[in-house]
Amino acid sequence: MKHSPHIALLAANALLGANFSFYASLYAEGVGYAEIFLMQIVVSALIFTPFAGLFYRSHKRLTLEDFGSIFTIALVVIFGWLYLLTRGASLTNPIDASTLSTIGPIVTLIIAYTTRAELPSKMHIAGMVVALAGAVTMLIDRRITSEGSSTIYIGDALVAISVVAAAIHTTLARQQLQRYGALTVIALYFAIGTTLALPILWSNFIALLHRNITAAIGAEMLYIALFGTVLPFWLLYTATPQVSSSVAASYRYMQPLTAIVMAIVRGQTTPDNTNILGMIVIIFGVILLGVATERSSATL
Question: Cα–Cα–Cα angle for 263, 264, 266, nearest 5°?
Fold first, then answer.
């Protein structure tokens, strides 16, 4: 199915942003971060693996060297990104966790410059800096105006590390996606992650299977599994090879916007003037990024 890579990236990051609100409410209901993590990777593996086997292009044989590379990046995706994200989100709050996701594009930009893989335009850089400024404004304000605890800072640190891992994988996975296709690569990532995680977190998996799930918890877990993991991963991995790494990363600024709106609508936070100012600044930065993207597309 053909779709615009920009619409796909926008939708994927909006869906990922909503996860933070559901993480918070599930944690409040006693669902552990390890159970959520296992649900994400096991369900994704069960969905993607059969389709990958069905549509695998046999003329592009998977070499041992390529499998080693895929295995390495799978560790970054599954444990560096998803595991640390769910662990960190359990210690902090949905707005902080989603706001920290905005450092991802900056990391991607640094990698692009360091490797000389691409040179984003000045407007692209300006958009990232402006959006990041809005996010930092909200984060600092929340730290000043809240009592906080050491666990919150640990959670923030884990989320930040997961964001860096996500940015690294966005850059490294491009060649694999172009060579083998999104289905094959996603299926291998989740199959490898599930195979490694289940023995380590077996007791958590058993707890998940025996959990008394209410309708509300079931609906939220279903969202995270299907609309917060499977669908956005498919959209991200099919769209990323069609645009530059910096453009793909810039859409991560949708995540805090979605998370804040969800948190407000669901009564998880009350917006103040700094929240509103930060959102306006982020939106302005996203507009700059959109203009920069349109200009770069027009010159191709």
Answer: 65
